[in-house]
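Input (structure):
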C-alpha cells in the first residue's frame, strides 16, 4: 500500500431509505472499516434491520463495532452481523465496524461490498 486512502462504495435505495455502504482502507487506521450512512426520506418512523453475511474465513470476534458510531445497534455471530435501529423521518444515521486482523491477501474488498439483506417495517406513531 502506498499510503493513499482506498475506498469503494455501494449505493442502495430501499423503500424511502438511501443507504451508502463504503469499504475504507486508510493508512492512518490499523484495519479496514465498513461505513454505513443511512438517510431516511420517509414520512414516518421505520424499524430497520440490516443483515450482513460474513465471509466464512471471518469470525465474529474479528469484527469491532465503533463505540461512538452505533455499536449498540449491532449484534451477530460467526455467520452474520445484524444492525437494528428505528430511523426517524429525515434522520441521517451513521455506523462503522472495523475488520480486526484483516489481511488483504486473504479477503478482498468485494467480499465486504455485498448488498446486505434489508428489512424495513413502518412504526405506528
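Output (sequence):
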Amino acid at each position: 500500500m502506498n499510503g493513499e486512502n482506498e475506498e469503494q462504495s455501494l449505493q442502495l435505495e430501499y423503500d424511502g431509505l438511501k443507504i451508502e455502504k463504503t469499504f475504507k482502507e486508510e493508512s492512518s487506521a490499523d484495519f479496514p472499516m465498513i461505513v454505513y450512512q443511512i438517510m431516511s426520506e420517509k414520512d414516518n418512523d421505520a424499524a430497520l434491520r440490516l443483515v450482513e453475511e460474513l465471509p466464512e474465513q471471518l469470525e465474529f470476534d474479528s469484527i469491532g463495532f465503533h463505540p461512538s458510531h452505533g455499536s449498540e445497534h449491532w449484534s451477530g455471530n460467526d455467520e452474520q452481523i445484524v444492525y437494528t435501529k428505528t430511523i426517524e423521518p429525515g434522520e441521517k444515521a451513521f455506523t462503522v465496524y472495523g475488520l480486526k486482523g484483516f489481511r488483504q491477501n486473504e479477503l478482498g474488498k468485494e467480499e465486504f461490498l455485498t448488498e446486505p439483506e434489508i428489512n424495513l417495517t413502518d412504526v405506528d406513531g
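Notes: The beta strands are 6-14, 17-25, 33-40, 46-53, 63-65, 74-76, 80-87, 92-99, 117-122. The longest strand covers residues 6-14.
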